[in-house]
User: Fold these one by one.
Assistant:
Number 1:
Amino acid sequence: MLTFKRFLTEGDTTRAYDMEKVIVSAAGGPSFSSKLIPDSETIGKKIVNDMKLDGVGKFPKNTYPASDRWNKYFAPKKASGSTLTPKTDFMIGDKKISLKTGDAQLMGGGVNEASATFFTAVEESGMSTDKVVLELGNHIKNLLPSSNLKKLGIKGNKTELEQAGKFIEIEMLKNADDAHHAFKNDLRKVFSDNQKFAEAFTHEAMTGKVKFGNNDGTAEYFLIVNYEGSAQLHNAFTDKSYVRKISSQVKPDVKFKSTQSTAAALKTASNPKGKTGYYTFWSAVGLGVKMIVEEEIKNSQNMLNEGIVDSLKDFTERIMNKAKKWLSNVMQKIKKIIGDSWKALLVFMGIEPQISFNNNISW
């Protein structure tokens, strides 16, 4: 047996679907009279006439193919299932219309849908990676140890130099962890209260313009009605004030979580394995730190074996000088790999966006 709440919800959803059929019928489409909407034929004609909806009414297909641009956010596969459900509820003449009746939500779909909408909004709002990559560079500079290793009381025999090297390795990796967390906070600030991003996110979630490449799955007009026949019609492509009104309610918030995902999203015909030059920020830092420290420990031990005194100061300075050059090279590679792709940046950093937003809109 259905709960009373679920009974009401399902009943209202059915009534909303009926309203679509009522309006299409009033516009010369398949004939329909609703048992859930009193005097539905009169209501339908009133809406069509008041909104000056010219042309024959019809329904879209159940699904439409996603554009290549949208599918790249689902790589190595393509968007499928419910994510291909059109934003358009029906067409009247050349108008592709999304009907909003009662408690209509902004967007359905799962994590991939929200993530693809996020990346689309980033691109559509013209957000460059320049500033965030610069901030990442500042964090990377802080990977160098700040501790005074002389306080360890190490004088410079083989065992003590090895201990100092491991200490440097641990501190650099800790600093890398701190840098990673700081960078995630930096990214969140980039999107906090960013009106252009919020409007671009809302517009794509409403219309599916990029998702469907402006085919019949893309909704251009928003028809807001009640069951008594009162109606408003907005063109989301031209009425920026309406999109702004909706985005002020949506208020998308973005957090970033660490992920173990691969660089599959970077796959192209010329780069079939999605190679990035190295796997992620963590593999680049981890392997680099380990290589530098191990090489200098080995060199210092060889020098001691040959009777050449290698002080702790000389040992640490060599590590620091080599690390500075290595960090500089890392940044150059990062810039080359990322270009101005937000997707590539997040893949390299081993993080993914978590988007939350108000899905219950007063249309």
Note: The radius of gyration is 29 Å.
Number 2:
Amino acid sequence: MARALGIDDSVTTCDCCGKSGLKSTVAMELDSGEIVHYGCVCAARNTGKAQKTITSEIKAERARKIDLAKAEWKRHPANLAYRVRLNERDRVARETGVRMVGTIAMEFVREASTAADAAQIEIAGRYGLMAHEFDCFPA
């Protein structure tokens, strides 16, 4: 039985019937592990699954990828370094009695923030997500 992985708009030809010019295809993982791209009609027809079930599988797979990305992000060194820098900023504010805001606060954490942003983009790419699709700040 094939498992729906997601919608792919970069592949516009059905691997089943050969129809081309589709808006998108459904990426399916076959029991053999092979990934194929079917149009929505062929996806339902060849798996015996209702469109609603295929949509549910796609949503579940996306949620799984988001959970994996979040877990990786929480233990990533760039995220941990960013958190340390934020805590340093707050400690300095407590010790001096002067709260850092605006440009001063941004400059204090800029290097760690830039590295954390790059790590977030890298992690998102590994899971086929956009960086904004999983909530990273604050974690």
Note: The radius of gyration is 22 Å.
Number 3:
Amino acid sequence: MPTAQDLRAALKQHGWRMTPQRALILEAIARSRGHISVEQVHRQVAEDSPEVNVTTVYRTLERLEELGILRHKHVHGEPAQYERTDEPLHQHLVCTGCGRDQELDVSVLAPLEDELRRRYGFYANLSHTAFVGLCRACQARQPTPTVH
């Protein structure tokens, strides 16, 4: 698990100047667990430094993704969420009925990944988005489940 110091060193190694604003962003990332949005990072940083621009947060998170420190995914209609790459890969099952978000081990998707490669010659990044549908509880409440 990288510390804020590790993150600063990675950016410096790739030629990025370490500004006080970037240092605060890196501290927020180092403290984060699970998913975090640009807006959440910006709110955390703005507590200590209200002048930090959300654009600076976007650029810094994008750079951390380019360096392999973060990855992002889009979860059904929500803004991009970032997570650290030292956390295990997973997918999401998002219920359109109740909004429940359940993590799914990506190994479950290996047969789909293989079939897409075999049938279409397509190498899919199945950890990048979410599956939407109805959870068991919402299905039980509806006579005929309909997925939107």
Note: The beta strands are 36-37, 70-73, 81-84, 90-95, 101-105, 130-133.
